[in-house]
Input
Amino acid sequence: MSWILFALTAALIWSVVNIADKIIISRLTHEPVVPVILLNGIGIFVALGIVVVRGVPHFPIQIIGEIFLLGVFAVVPSYCYFTAAKGEEISRLVPLFQLSGLFTAVIAAFTLHEVFTARTYVSIVVMVVGALFISSKQLFAIKPTHSFWWMIGAAFTFALYGIILKHILQVSNFWDVFAAMRVATFLLSIPLGCWYSKPLRQLVVEHGARGVLIISVNEFFSMSGVFVHAIASSLGPITLVNAITGVQPLFVLVLSVFVTLIAPQLLKEEVDPKTIARKLIATALILGGARGIT
Output
């Protein structure tokens, strides 16, 4: 049952990364594209490591374009997520990533003409209610914020990423595709780095090499979560592994409260009992709906 430990470890790693993301976008840089560029910049080293271990991957020519498209849809959700994190508590945002399962189901219904069961319809309603509930700070004033809509964009494009990845994996393996996708995102980071050189220089001027190092290390840990999740998936049933890593939003909530209480200068969220209870209920609705769809 070691796969359970690996699955929980992946969820914990990603939760710590989420907390660090909020601190980074609040304290080190206010430009969402900066951590995105650095994430995709260091991705080339991960790709090279995979190539050293496994050798140079070979793909059918017809999926080369799909791999580059996969890289695009790896970058866009990150940008949407960091943009959302600028203006909202991270514990309100992370659960919304679960909506990607909803979008995947809807896209499959339109493209593959799949018919929803009554359980799926109920799960969709439950997820939408949970999403609106967690994004609104007043019980009877449901008003989605700008950050909410950015997270909807993140969840939707992440769903497209998952669909493209699933199609590519029919003719190749995960590690080769992951390495190639990281090469694609690195290539995308080059023009982005040139276009947004000013906020990158500002990061170095204000925080020195330490600022770049902090963001890079955080993004490296984010990638390490992918590796740990892959190990869990190789050892246990993928459905159960995903169900266990689905506790990530709960980990984020606990960590956000903990950091707010011990280091409010780094992270400050609402931690009164009513708000925490509201977040817990909304998160449970979203996770429950996600399990019902998948």
Q: What stands out?
A: DSSP finds twelve helices and no strands in the chain. The mean pLDDT is 84.
